[in-house]
Amino acid sequence: MAKATVTAASRPSGSSRPSHPSGSSQLPELKASWWESHSVALASVRFSAMARRLPAVLRQAVTIAWQASRRDTVAALAFNLLAGVATAFGLLATRGVLQALFAAGPTLDRVRAAVPSLVVVAAATFVRSGLSIIAGWAQARLEPQVLTTAERRLFELTTQVKLAAFDDAGFSDEMERARNRGSLAVQFLTRGAIDLTAGLAGLAATAVTLALLHPVLLGALLLASVPAAWAAVRAARLAYLSNHARTSRRRRLWMLSDLMANRATAAELRAFTMRPFLLREYDIMAGAETRTELEVVRRQTMTRLVGGVFSGVATFGVYVALGALLVDHRLPLAAAGTAVLALQAARNALALAVTNVNRVYEEGLYFNDYTDFLARAGERMPPVTREATVRAPASIEVRDATLHYAETDAPAVLGANLTVHRGQTIALVGENGSGKTSLARLIAGLYHPDSGTVSWDGTPLSTVDPEDAWQHVAMVSQEYWHWPFTAERNILLGTNDAPRDGTNDAPRDGTNDAPRDGPRDAPRDAPRDGPRDGTNDEPRDEPRENTHDGLVEAAARKAGAHDMIAGLPAGYDTLLSRNFAGGQDLSGGQWQRLAAARAFYRDAPVLICDEPSAALDARAEHALFAALRAGAPDRITVLITHRLANVRHADHIYVLHEGHVVEHGAHLDLLAAGGTYAELFALQATGYTAA
Ligand SMILES: Nc1ncnc2c1ncn2[C@@H]1O[C@H](COP(=O)(O)OP(=O)(O)OP(=O)(O)O)[C@@H](O)[C@H]1O
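That is the input. Now the predicted structure with adenosine-5'-triphosphate docked in place:
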């Protein structure tokens, strides 16, 4: 039996409370993220800088569209460009029509002379419409593919970045922006880029026509475009800046709305009469939000007004130039008539182009958040270290391990040392915040220590692909998620077995090397003995060890969850989420049983149980620990619990205080040592024995 060791540790000092100014929100200010200064700088660029930026944004949009579908990208761009060419043909043919009509001679002869050009005009109009429709079709096909590509890329990274990334306060903000707006921006940007192409193609067509009619008209057209483009870009920038400034307020509003209209908070909200406080917070946030929005709308309207006035003046100037050329006899009447039509078409094309310059610029800013997040997340990927591989470990050794979470001063774990062999159970105990969960995360390879090592069979986890290690870990964590899947899928989570409902996770190789009693890959539609809806006449007393269903059921039984699941309306097939039609919810203890069943099903050689019985009733707790003890000889078990009666069977107990291991040893040795463990144990025991 190991000797108990007791070391000294200092006690925590007192804490101070933040004070809140009265009359303002009592919710603390959300922290600014790294990207804020970056994107403010980006959003306040001048018109010229924006124009320089557009090609790069467009190139990025086309690149992502290209990745989504080459065929549709080419089709959308090419058909829009061809439609522009058809527009130019149509306009030039119009000049032929007007020339023929304005020529001298009898009306019938003039009309006859105009017919060939009229046919070209009609054909050009027909072709242009057809090309635009096909381009629109390609664009409509492209957009959902682009969105899927962008989202898929995002989720590939968010599910793979180091767990430590989530401890960075800015990361969730960045992720939210990229997820909520950034991915959508990719779709809008693609739409904007293609519409901009269409607008520019139309503009180019009319510009070519005007240049052929008279070069001066081209200059006039360009001059007329500037005010409208300026107004559009400025309005977009105002919208972006206001949106950007409102992010943290909107998040708070969202949080408040979730607190006030949520089943989970409804009871506590009432019992603690929190309604006035929450409504007041809402009023403060929503009031500020509305004021900001109204101010933005006012400034946008002013901008558009100024842009409109200048645009009108510029257009008037163009018509004056046209009139002067006509009076000067430097432009024939037919050409002047064509120029009027071309200018009309140019105005439409310009409106399309300007609207989409606006959109592309604005979406480009959001898109930038998306690409920046991808880059930032890419930096936080686990290192691709395949120097070594790990198999189911026979021993785990922690040497002088220290762990600091991001942006915290005090280490969560400080110089921890422990060794555990297969067949052993170690228990981590200590006060709240003493570092138990953090140490368990190090053991599981979810975090790597800042200094020191965690080795499995002598291989440091920092040198292996983390997924290699996680395949050998099962975890009943303190804060397990209520996965909105069926009861069965909740037990199967993350394993390579296919559920009967076909919502299988992507298969992973070698989920578990440890031999199991029965096959884990039984076919999805393996014959079932009877209904699983809980109305079965013949209760399934004996698990069918060698079938897929049998293994799920056996795990549920070990966790004391089978009877509960069998009693659900559709048994193992019951959806455990009230968000779905026919979905059910479970009590806290029932969810915890399910979490334990998941760990038993995974049957991994390393089992981490972090407060696995916190919500269980006494009988269920007793059964759970009996099941854990029964499986202990085949695995390494790490047990964290505040109920010390449950750790007395552990082979070795580690007592933590402020990240230090301050005592360790077997139960009886620690009692004999008379340290913190003995004190806490006696305290709990008194609770049961006191009269
Ligand atoms: N993700 C995190 N980011 C920053 N600090 C964290 C994080 N997780 C834990 N901590 C801090 O690290 C310290 C140790 O936390 P840990 O969860 O390991 O304690 P614990 O002993 O498991 O506590 P409990 O008994 O309450 O579960 C605490 O001070 C906690 O505030």
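The chain has 18 helices and eleven strands.
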